[in-house]
């Protein structure tokens, strides 16, 4: 961090790093040994019940993977149900890929802690002049966190868990695809808590596929294209409609096949297991990454169910971007800096503004110091008229 940080900020910096390391170490000690995972060869002379017990999934979950009705007999041999060995091998491989790496929950939490400390305590040196605002919130700490998210939370620890699956698995457990609904609710609760502590911190700082899109978007190319945004009403409508259809299909209201999971066919997190199961998954990965060159986080905006739910949680975020409207001179600097309509909507005081991914782009551009990332209960001075007018003259 810059040498201009105050002594207190340097202490916060050290405590943040120590806290993040401790969290990861605790997670490493809690990580399940891979030797505990099933190693036996599954064969079609076994029943769904036998295979499901070894995989620690429900019979319904295995039946769905085998493209069988959820109410199919769980005690008959699989070959009697018409299941081929290759089909069984594919299904068991996919289900094993969904076993959560416990350590990953802790790494997510550590990255969220680093992001929160940076945004609230460390990004802006204490007592620095507004004339120095261009040095506030340097990009490199954020980029380092994104790289760690991609490498560690993605390729090293695999696709599961992740925020998207955390949301989807709650509803899958409700139709019997997982043994315990409460377990999945608790996992989703962790992701939700990280999104509420700081506005979408889990999405903005720790989600591996979100981070990969962010890194690609950060490349200094196609700058004119990046100035154009698809209206939030459009992106959120698509995301919301897909979520509604996915729920209806999962519960068998649409399609008549209970347990059908649309998100399995658009899950880009398979990239981190190098397991591109379907053409649609490969297409979503390629399109998301290519479009990210000129468009901000397309998968998050158009598809991700957790992105939709965490957008709702933003209204209750404890720490988030706040705008002091008494200081604002409507110069538009923050709107131009924001990769979405998040700042624009907040300036307009919309009740449900566009997603804010806590990327910090808006925090060092305001000439009147009207934008801060802070605790929602923090009180501000009643008036800053003289400062605002002075800043207005310097920007004229």
Q: Layout of SSEs?
A:
Layout: H1 7-30, H2 48-55, H3 59-65, H4 85-96, H5 102-122, H6 140-156, H7 163-174, H8 181-197, H9 201-206, H10 208-217, H11 223-226, H12 232-250, H13 279-291, H14 298-302, H15 305-313, E1 319-323, H16 333-337, H17 342-347, E2 371-375, H18 385-395
Antiparallel strand pairs: 1-2
Description:
It is a single chain. The chain has 396 residues and is mostly helical. The protein folds into three domains: 7-29 and 100-312, no CATH class; 38-96; 318-395, no CATH class. The chain contains 18 helices and two strands. A two-stranded antiparallel ribbon has the order 1-2. The chain is elongated and about 75 Å long. The two termini are 33 Å apart. The model is unreliable at 383-396 (pLDDT under 50).
């Amino acid at each position: 961090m810059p040498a201009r940080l105050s002594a207190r900020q340097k202490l916060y910096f050290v405590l943040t790093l120590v806290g993040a390391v401790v969290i990861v170490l605790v997670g490493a000690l809690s990580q399940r040994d891979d030797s505990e995972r099933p190693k036996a060869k599954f064969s079609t002379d076994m029943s769904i019940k036998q295979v499901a017990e070894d995989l620690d999934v429900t019979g319904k979950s295995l039946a769905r993977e085998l493209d069988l009705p959820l109410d199919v007999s769980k005690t008959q041999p699989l070959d009697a149900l018409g299941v081929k060995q290759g089909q069984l091998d594919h299904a068991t491989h996919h289900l094993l890929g969904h076993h959560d790496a416990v350590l990953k929950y802790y790494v997510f939490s550590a990255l969220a802690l680093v992001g929160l400390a940076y945004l609230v305590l460390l990004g802006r040196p204490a007592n620095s002049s507004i004339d120095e605002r261009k040095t506030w919130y340097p990009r490199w700490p954020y980029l380092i966190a994104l790289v760690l998210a991609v490498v560690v939370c993605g390729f090293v620890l695999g696709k599961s868990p992740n925020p998207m699956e955390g949301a989807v698995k709650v509803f899958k457990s409700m139709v019997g695809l997982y043994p315990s609904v409460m377990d999945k609710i608790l996992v989703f609760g962790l992701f939700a808590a990280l999104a509420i502590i700081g506005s979408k911190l889990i999405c903005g700082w720790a989600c591996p596929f979100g981070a990969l899109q962010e890194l690609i978007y950060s490349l200094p190319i196609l700058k004119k294209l990046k100035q154009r945004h698809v209206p939030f009403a459009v992106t959120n409508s698509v995301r919301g409609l897909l979520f509604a259809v996915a729920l209806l299909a999962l519960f068998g209201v649409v399609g008549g096949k209970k347990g059908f999971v649309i998100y399995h066919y658009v899950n880009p997190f398979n990239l981190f297991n190098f397991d591109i199961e379907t053409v649609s998954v490969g297409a979503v990965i390629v399109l998301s990454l290519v479009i990210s060159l000129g468009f901000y986080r397309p998968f998050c905006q158009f598809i991700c169910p957790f992105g939709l739910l965490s957008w709702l949680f933003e209204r209750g975020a404890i720490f988030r971007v706040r705008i002091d409207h008494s200081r604002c001179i409507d110069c538009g600097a923050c709107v131009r800096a924001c990769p979405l309509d998040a700042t624009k909507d907040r300036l307009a005081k919309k009740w449900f503004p566009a997603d804010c991914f806590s990327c910090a782009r808006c925090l060092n551009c305001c000439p009147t110091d009207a934008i801060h990332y802070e605790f929602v209960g923090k009180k501000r001075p009643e008036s800053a008229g003289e400062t605002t007018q002075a800043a207005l003259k310097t920007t004229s």
